[in-house]
Amino acid sequence: MNHSLFNSTIGVNFSNTFQSTGKQVSATTAATQIKTTGVKTVKMFTYNQTDCISAFAKEGLQVLVDIPNGDLQACANNDATTINAIVKVLSDYSANIPMICVGNEPLGSWWNNAYKPYLVNALTNIKSAIATKGLITKVTVPFNYAIMGNSYPPSSGAFNGSLKNTILDVCAILKADNSVFMINVYPFITQNSQPTISLDYCLFTANNNPGDWVYDGTYTYKNIFDAMYDALFVALGNNGYGSLPIVIGEAGWPTGPSATYTTATKANAQVFNQNLINHCKSGKGTPRNPNVKIPCFIFEMYDEDTKPIGAGTFEHNWGVYGYNATKNDYEAKYPLTW
Q: Contact, 111 vs 69, CB < 8 A?
């Protein structure tokens, strides 16, 4: 498992794009507050917010930048303006940007395959442009977990058949690049859509509840995170990519609105995120991939009160930090040891 790419096992996702006017956290404030947590690596969703990249770099933070899905077609077509703009940022901040994410959940079903035709070519062209510039920046693709066609039990882990060829083409590029496979994992969303799944099993608190565990051959799963991770691990292994390190691009728990989503509370968010952090840093790994630390980016640093709510109104409340109108500033909603 290659951890040398990142300065810390635990990172955090940052975005201020969907914060309303007057509530948008500044680059310098974000850099200071993120550094205060002890986190050393930040994952963003753009490449052109150079004020933020610069502020993070000044605080000694690593930054993963992202090529938005809307730019994938231009990159696939080798559009010089787009690619040169991307490579310029990677070059200007080469000491602080170890990796660039190409797309953001580009194979999500809600896109109706809009980005699927462009993903592999975009990834190929970006990697080529990076190499031509003499940079060593790695490439990856943050996938949503629905790329899995089957994930239960973990031993049956398999990719969605309609996406498999694209995923494996991406894997070939990642392997050649000595990069990582990035996946977003959301036990909250799984439990919210399937209430029969034990909340304790999702919060890492089922250690003393054997009735909540999942038994899969000789492997026992005491939390859903390990089960989801290992299902992907099996799918990768069955296709010849078991050596690709798995990085969790997003994982978190929203704090509301609890009137609509009863498990979306500050208490549950604190328990989930703290247990997730502890688990990923522990080096225990998972039943099928033991004795590894699991790089993981918590979603997310700040609430975004204008984020689209197609998935649910909980989308406004993923932040570890929330806006305090009295102080006109963001502050931690609950304590975490990062």
A: yes
Is residue 312 exposed (0-12), middle (13-18) or buried (19+ Cβ within 10 Å)? middle
Overall size of the chain counted in residues: 338
The pLDDT of residue 3 is 60
CA distance 200 to 223: 8
Closest by CA to 229, choosing from 167, 280, 172, is: 280
Cβ atoms of 180 and 247 closer than 8 Å:
yes
Sign of CA dihedral 86, 89, 94, 99: negative
Distance from C-alpha of 185 to C-alpha of 153, rounded to nearest angstrom? 16
Contact 333, 319 (CB under 8 A): yes
> Could you please report the per-residue DSSP string of 179-203?
--EEEE--HHHHHHH-TTS-HHHHH
User: How far apart are alpha carbons 172 and 241 in whole angstroms?
Assistant: 8
HSE, side-chain direction, 13 A CA sphere, residue 175: 14
Residue 52: φ, ψ to 5°: -75, -45
* Integer Cα distance of 302 and 14 in angstroms: 7
3-state secondary structure of 219: strand
> Could you state, in chain order, the average pLDDT of each consecutive group of 10 residues for the chain (338 residues)?
80 98 97 98 98 98 98 98 98 98 97 98 98 98 98 98 98 98 98 96 97 98 98 98 98 98 98 98 98 98 98 98 96 98
Structure tokens at 165: 């060829």
Question: In the structure encoding, which two tokens stand for residue 145, read together?
Answer: 């977990």
Angstrom CA distances, 171 to 67, 124, 240, 255, stand at 18, 12, 9, 35
Torsion sign over Cα 164, 165, 166, 171: positive
Compute the distance between CA of residue 321 and CA of residue 14 in angstroms, rounded to an integer.
11
Give Cα separations from 133 to 19, 84, 94, 176 (angstroms): 35, 10, 11, 18
Instruction: Find tokens 């995170």 and name the residue.
Output: 225
Cα distance between residue 37 and residue 337, in whole Å: 8
Residue matched to tokens 């949503």: 144
**What is the Cα 61 distance to its own chain's centre?**
17
Mapped onto helix, strand or coil, the DSSP state of residue 326 is coil
